[in-house]
UniProtKB/TrEMBL annotation:
Protein name per UniProt: Small ribosomal subunit biogenesis GTPase RsgA
EC number: 3.6.1.-
The CP-type G domain, residue ranges: 64-224
CDD domains, alphabetized: S1_YloQ_GTPase (cd04466), YjeQ_EngC (cd01854)
The protein's required cofactors: Zn(2+)
GO BP terms in the entry: ribosomal small subunit biogenesis
Cross-referenced InterPro entries: G_CP_dom, NA-bd_OB-fold, P-loop_NTPase, Ribosome_biogen_GTPase_RsgA, RsgA_GTPase_dom, RsgA_N
Localization per record: Cytoplasm
Gene3D superfamilies given in the database record: Nucleic acid-binding proteins, P-loop containing nucleotide triphosphate hydrolases, Probable gtpase engc, domain 3
Domain EngC GTPase: 73-222
Pfam families with a match to the protein in the record: RsgA_GTPase, RsgA_N
GO cellular component: cytoplasm
Record carries keyword Cytoplasm: yes
Amino acid sequence: MTKGTIVKALSGFYYVKTDDGQTYQCRGRGLFRKQKISPLVGDRVEIDIMDDGDGYVTKIEKRKNELIRPPVSNIEQAIIVTSCLEPDFNALLLDRFLVLVESKGIEPLIVISKMDLASEQVKNEMAKYQSIYENMGYSVVLTSSKDEELFRQLIPYIEGKSSVIAGQSGVGKSSLLNALDPNLNIDTNHISESLGRGKHTTRHVELIPLFNGLVADTPGFSSLDFREIDSEKLPAYFPDMVAVQDDCKFRGCMHHKEPKCAVKAAVEKGQIPSFRYEHYLQFLEEIQIRKPRY
């Protein structure tokens, strides 16, 4: 048996890069279908290599985590790309990404792109957001749409890690990858001004080797709902709330209608930004009103 990592899935084939650097085109065993297991890009697997050079995936090792959309596993880091304009910075969408990433135990890196297109007012606003999120313990990197030196400050974050790039259409995810490695030449289309969104030609998930790490080139998170998150766990995905919640009067406080809540007190004092608390309440309501899972 040979061990390796699935680096691409396409048309029923799995491309496995073995630990010695060879790549084999493989199919999954019928056993996986019976067990309702689907191999994912990022899976650590064992393969059986046939005489013709192709192989079969015979075993999937236990996953550290898995994402549904994009279908990828064992991700250590999510590079969340949000632009300062075109499209405009959206803190609600950023917080939605952060909650989803936190819920999977994935380390987030926030990248604010297109800073070279921003006015002084927008630059000052982005600096404030950078400070807010860094105070929560997140890493925040500001990049340009043209200056490759600004992109290169991302290299230490990518080195040796398995990463996925997330963000809404048009924020510059593929442009970022192309700037880091021009040989990738990932197709991008310009933002459609009438629709206000970008078009991405990626149709499959692939892990691209980059600076001794792997980066998933995907169309991004196509699902941003909280169907896998229970309301009781939501506070744990807001690190600014976690920092003060031990001072709440009631254990298991949901920071909503409970009296003597340390989180609400911190919001009133300005220690937790009010927009973060508003987003928390919005997400909490969204989870509570969804249809029960059976």
